[in-house]
Every structure is written in structure tokens, then in C-alpha cells.
Amino acid sequence: MEELIQILEEIQPDADYENCTTLIDDEILSSFDVISIVGELEDTYDIRILPVEIVPANFNSAKAIYAMVQRLKK
Fold first, then answer.
1. Which distant-in-sequence residues (6+ apart) come within 8 Å of 45 by Cβ?
2. How many domains does one find in the chain?
3. Whether the Cβ atoms of residue 36 and residue 4 lie closer than 8 Å to each other
């Protein structure tokens, strides 16, 4: 999870990733941020994130992003 938080902070340093659960809903992350995050996650975790996975529920919090990564690593 620490590695994920570092990735997120490099892309959008102004968010509170430990506590925020509305990163998409409150427009803290832009669509460009999400695309950048997808690329970083794919490279870092050697996973493939299909377009069907790029939905607000998977990106509204660091915990949701981490859960998606764990699911896709299997």
C-alpha cells in the first residue's frame, strides 16, 4: 500500500489518500490523473487494467485502487 500511495502522490500530491473516499466524485483526480495512474500501476505491478476496470468505484480511494490491483495480480 505504501508503494501505491507514493505513486498516487507523484501524480496528484494535493490529495489525502489515507482518508479520502471520493477522489473521483469530488474531482480530486482528473481523467488525465486516472490515465496516468493506470499506466503507473500497469508498469509497477505488471498487470493489465482493461477499460472496463476504469470506473469511479475502482478509483475513489487508495483502498479501492489497492483492492483492484490485488484482484488483477491473481
1. 69, 72, 73
2. 1
3. no
